[in-house]
Write the structure tokens for this entry.
Amino acid sequence: MPGLELPTQTGAGDVFEHAQKSLSGKRIALVGFSDADSGELARIVAEANAFTRSLSAETGPSADVLKPFELILVNVESAKGTLWASTEEAADAMHRCVAVGSAVALLNLAVTPSVPYREFCIWPASAEGLLLRCVLALRSSGHAGSRPVPLNSTVVLADDDASITALVRLALQRNGMTCETASNGGEALKLIQQLRPGAVVLDVGMPDMDGFEVLSRIRSTPELAQTGVILLTGCEQETDILRG
């Protein structure tokens, strides 16, 4: 039915509006992508009035050519064996980098010693999905250092997708954090109330109680209200995340 398409079209328009506000005029480097992927990435980024330049994976993280760019998208598959896979060499550039690649490549990045990329984007991705990652990476880099590292290193992770749970849990553990997991919102809320974690990672579309409802419960409980919360979403829900 034609009427069923309207919410999706409206949501996509909201995503592009948010993306344009955040990314308009920004310079984004594309490191290690094929000509075809670079062209598609450039097309998507141009919809947010941002500019791109394609560079080879041999262009090191500390190269002068990268200094003017607000964001750097790195193809982690072509970056294997280069300075982009070196913690020491890439550390200074990580606050503005998004790791891009297949789900398997990003999972491998999480389970092996590697550099702490600001954001991750499974590629190929929808235009909305890619722009969301760019907006979140830019937002995070703009607030880098503004919040002290919490003394409580326990994180509650709630997601009904086992592969996403594994990816995020391993990334957290790699960075020295204790991670407790739940597969739905009800379980997550109970864990949060019991453990009083330093941070919570919530899937927006969980069963039983969605991520926004859990977030609302956290914020309305005085002893939990200051808990740091990160929301995860699939490609269909970028509007909710950007609005949040």
Summary: The longest strand covers residues 27-31. The CA atoms of residues 101 and 123 lie 5 Å apart.
